[in-house]
Description:
Elements: H1 11-15, H2 31-36, E1 51-57, E2 63-69, H3 71-75, E3 79-83, E4 108-109, E5 115-121, H4 124-132, E6 135-140, H5 147-152, E7 168-176, E8 185-193, E9 205-210, E10 216-220, H6 225-236, E11 243-247, H7 263-273, E12 277-280, H8 283-289, E13 296-304, E14 310-320, H9 328-337, E15 347-355, H10 371-388, H11 392-399, E16 429-442, E17 451-461, E18 464-470, H12 480-492, E19 496-499, H13 517-544, E20 551-554, E21 557-560, E22 564-568, H14 569-573, E23 578-585, E24 605-618, E25 623-634, H15 641-660, E26 666-667, E27 670-671, E28 692-695, H16 712-729, E29 735-736, H17 740-744
Parallel strand pairs: 1-12, 8-29, 10-11, 14-15, 18-19, 25-28
Antiparallel strand pairs: 1-5, 2-4, 2-6, 3-5, 7-15, 8-13, 9-10, 9-12, 13-14, 16-24, 17-18, 17-23, 20-21, 21-22, 24-25, 26-27
Helix pairs in contact: 6-7, 10-16, 12-13, 15-16
Amino acid sequence: MTNQSSPARTPQDLNESITGGIGDSPLRPDGTLKVRGEFAYSSDLWAEDMLWGGTLRSPHPYARISSIDITEAVKHPGVYAVLTHQDVPGENIYGLKVADTPALAADIVRYKGEPVALVAADHPETARRALAKIVVDYEVLEPITDPELAAHDDTLPKLHPEHPGGNVVRYQPIIQGNPEAKADVVVSDVYTMGMQDQAFLGPESGLAIPAEDGGVDLFIATQWLHVDQKQTARALGLPVEKVRFTMSGVGGAFGGREDLSMQIHACMLALHTGKPVKMVYNREESFYGHVHRHPAKMYYEHGATKDGKLVYIKAKMYFDGGAYASKTPVVVSNATSLGVGPYEVPNVRIEGWGLYTNNPPCGAMRGLGAVQPAYAYESQMDKFAKALDMDPVELRQLNAVSQGSTSDGQADVRGLPGGLSNTSHGEGVVRGVGYAVIIKNVSYAEGVDDYSTARVRLEVIGGEPVALVHTAAAEVGQGLITMKQQIVRSELGVARVTVHAADTNVGDAGSSSASRQTYITGGAVKNACEAVREVLFDRVAQRFGENPADLSVAGGKVVSKTTGVLADLVDVLGDDVIEETREYHHLQTYPMDPETGQSRRVHVQHAYAAHRAVVEVDTELGLVKVVQLDCAQDVGKAINPDAVVGQIQGGSTQGLGLAVMEEIKVKDGKIRNPSFTDYLIPTILDTPPMTVDVIERADPNSPYGVRGVGEPPTISATPAVVNAIRNATGLNLTHTPVSPEHIVGAWPR
Length: 749
């Protein structure tokens, strides 16, 4: 049906009837369910005749396994299976970057909590009792717990003898200009950062169901379906197509779900018993069952002219990767390549080591590899400002990279917000202000072909046009589902957009990490929509004699640039379906030179964020209250402005936690506080007012000009808060998180 006699209406006019596109802030489809406690998480999964799986874990950080006796456990009533490394049907090895992790320990355990045996039983309590009856004879060995020692002491045992670097997972230098250049003013110090946990509220969980074709279906909370699928299939000795993964409700991730936890174990038990098997970690097991943020020790030295212009930087950074490699190679890459910060420094020598130890394994966590050096270089910038008697904001602006962003207007600290921390009557309370500006890479780097796949289907259902979008991208709370709907609405001009459950029946989408999904999966969805539109426009052009290049779609109608509305989508589609699958690949990146760290393009994109923190410190009790935490961040283009602000606020709060309370305490390779009673995370009472300045400076090489959003605020919040505490107290503060004893024990009297 044509409408050529009516005044021509533009796509913008027609799209006024369709809300929820790019630039709008539609409600999340899962938001209400989550607020009401009605959302189905992976721990809520259930199947008829389901068994429960459990894991026996090593009590030692480093030991040789002499024997495993499962006799009594097998006899326990209600037990259907007891499995050890001998029952791994395929290769007993996996890993994200380096295949070095056994599905079940065979001869050596390398950290406390390493999986040794599995049980499937008719009740979780039955499984727990059966696990207690497994007898493992260990020869306890002396653990390696000092990463700096592991880097340089060749007499230490090699935790992975097959690894060519010994206990060094990766060493990477960055050399530029003349690292031996001289400067008028020199500032140096040694900074340490504790081990942070992702602290997601939903523990590791999933349900494995054996299939009639001899394969298995796993419903799982993860960050990367396809990489999990490949690693699991290898361990099961099955072709990839027989190991099918479907995303289930995720209760937070932040990098902690990139590595495998119970995926192989649940599938092994399901295939062995022929029954569905569910596994759910309790909180303590979760602390042992996933990777954490790398603790770091960082030696930093900066030199500058008398007027504050940076001349050189020297740094040595040691990252404790724990027992297995996980993302340690990437942490070293990111930390060294970003270790200068968002500053112009002509002369650079940075060295980074990622180490094997017998401490808990560390891997991906929000801000991967950029959080640790940002704390160091931003502490250095504040110390420089003090040494040069300069305003800390002016010093940062003087040395900022030309394409970076600064927190303009934040230099004026008069009339600061916030009230008394209420930790005392105010006698010992002092106030401080701190700033931090950071740089973070977005997406994968160093030559990785980073891409995502999207399938988009357009058809008529119930008399109206409906689009279906299908990707394997993991929604882990960041708003990915809403983002995909917004792009499809804008690109295809339809109001109804259904999002297919993420699974491995569509091409790989990569991990929900590295602030990449809006960029990469958003690009794939955009490409697929454009392909659907191309088929649609060819059909319309043939019917109406129009040039396809002159056509657009909006408000459920096909519109001609010259003649206006041509037809309703419903009429054009009829009973037909248009379905297209497309990939999106970002610009090519290149590896870092192993000797100089130089690269044609090591990262595809950089994101920038700046924070100002205002704190009140009770110097008598050592307590800190953050009373204001403001952020300015360049996001390129805000697809969903409200969601962007939410990401920045959430990331800022996580960075605040690292600054003043979050640390896994490890002694002799053993976690001392594996619970939310003893591992503290910020609550709403700890979260201050936040002013968020969303800057939109489009990246010409990304879809819609977007930049990654999720990680940068976490990175800059931590040093801003610590700098504010340092400003308030005058203390050096070289460790984060800052604890009460750091304040009270060193307070000058």
